[in-house]
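Dear colleagues,

I hope this message finds you well. In preparation for our joint manuscript, I am sending the Similar to Ankycorbin acc. no. Q9EP71 (Pyronema omphalodes) sequence together with its predicted structure, so that both groups work from identical material. I would be grateful if you could confirm receipt.
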Amino acid sequence: MHNSCGVTALICATGNGRTDIVNILASRNDTRFEQKDQRGETALSIAKKKGHNEIVRCLNEYKQLREVKGTKLQEDSLGDPNGILSLILSQHEIDTKMLPNYRNRALLHVAKKGCTDILHLLLESKDIKLGMEGIDTNAALILAAREGHENTVHMLLRRINADPSFENENGESAI
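The corresponding structure tokens are as follows:
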């Protein structure tokens, strides 16, 4: 729905820097991200022009999420029947095609990127195998520390049995 100038609620909220409203509108399935106003601008182009970086991030994430939902990723083959974990991982540019142990490898990528919200989901997943038979928990800790992701390091230390003084084959450790 738009007025005679092509201004939608999304375009209006974006122009006014209302991240809270943009989040609500962008989450709706009927939101048309490519709708243009009379100047030919979309909500995304307006947000970029006005320097509303949080809105730019929000719009890009919702657009990506909608596109990913349309492709269904590999929900069945990933053992993620609702596709939630797959969607979240792909939204953060984490390759979900890393089968058969994609969740274990995803943990390494998430640790490196410092995505604590996704890390929490992965650590809660029953499919993550930590320790001797699964992922090298020290590797995730080293990656997070190397990238300077302090919150991720703290979360890993609280949730997994990793040794921060452990050195990998290159002599790197988390401390």
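For the figure legend, we might mention the following. Residues 112 and 144 are 5 Å apart (CA to CA). The chain has nine helices and no strands.

With kind regards,
E.M.
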